[in-house]
Each structure stands twice: as C-alpha cells, then as structure tokens.
Amino acid sequence: MNKEELKKIEEKLIEEKKLIEANLKRFESELDFGDDTDHMEEEADEIEETANFLSVKENQDKRLEQIETALERIKNGTYGICTECGGAIEKEILAVDPESLLCKKCKASKRK
Ligand SMILES: [Zn+2]
Questions:
Q1: Ligand 1 centroid – CA 43 distance (Å)
Q2: Interval between CA 50 and ligand 1 midpoint (Å)
Q3: How many Å lie between the centroid of ligand 1 and the Cα of residue 12?
Q4: 9-18: which pairs have CB atoms within 8 A and are 24 or more residues apart?
Q5: Which of 15, 44, 73, 107 could form a disulfide with 102, with the two C-beta atoms 3.0–4.6 Å apart?
Q6: How far, in Å, from the CA of 81 to the mean position of ligand 1?
Q7: What is the largest CA-CA distance in the chain?
Q8: What is the 87 CA–ligand 1 centroid distance (Å)?
Q9: How far is 21 from 105, CA to CA, in rounded Å?
Q10: Where are the alpha helices (DSSP H) in the chain?
Q11: In angstroms, what is the span from residue 74 Cα to ligand 1's centroid?
C-alpha cells in the first residue's frame, strides 16, 4: 500500500471517528429528560430509551476503539498487516472494512 492510499484511509477513519463522537454527544443530550416522570408510561418509555441508548453507545464505543487501533497502526507502520499470520491484508478487505486486523484467509478461518 502506498502513502497516498494510506493517507486516504487515515482521513476516512478520522472522519468516521468525528461522526461517531458527534453522534454520542447528541445521544447524551437527548437523554436529558427533565423531571416530569409522573406517569408510569413515560417512565417505561424512558427506561426503554435509556436501554436503547446504552446498546447503541456500547456499539459506537467499540467502533471508536477499532478506529483508534487502526489509526495507531497507520502511525506505527503496521497498518494493513494481518495480526494473525503477518501477511498483507488484501485491499478489497480494507476497502470495505478499514479497521480490519485480519487478512481474508484468517478472517475466513476465524469465522468457523
Ligand atoms: Zn492472515
């Protein structure tokens, strides 16, 4: 992979990271319900919404972590190298999954 390609991936990852962070912030501010919890129904709604938020947040946090790892790997020059076999990760894999730590072969064998 050449520098140009790497740079593009890095920019894409940073862009995605910003998006996720903005999303999380928005979620958190929407979760600010106020005090009118007199009605049971509303309370139930809020509980559901909170649970929803937490699962989304967990997902996004995980995603953020993967992006951080990928950015770290770009920095230290190990990006695009399979953590399992040490071979190069195919470009087609990185195109759809830029955070991937595994090459095609290792990905397939992990799925079994
Ligand atoms: Zn591999």
A1: 49
A2: 39
A3: 23
A4: 9/70, 9/74, 9/79, 9/94, 9/98, 10/71, 10/74, 12/98, 13/67, 13/70, 13/71, 13/74, 13/98, 13/99, 14/71, 16/63, 16/67, 17/64, 17/67, 17/68, 17/71
A5: 107
A6: 8
A7: 61
A8: 5
A9: 32
A10: 3-30, 40-75, 91-96, 104-111
A11: 18
CB 23 within 8 A of CB 60: yes
Tracing tokens 């992006």 back to the chain, one arrives at: 67
* CA 112 to ligand 1 center in whole angstroms: 15
Query: pLDDT tens for residues 43-55?
Result: 778 888 888 888 8
Burial of 8 (C-beta count, 10 Å sphere; 0-12/13-18/19+): exposed
Among all chains, which residue has been given the structure tokens 């995605």?
16
State which amino acid sits at residue 89.
Answer: I
**For 25-79, what is each residue's pLDDT tens digit?**
888 887 765 555 555 667 778 888 888 888 888 999 999 999 999 999 999 999 9
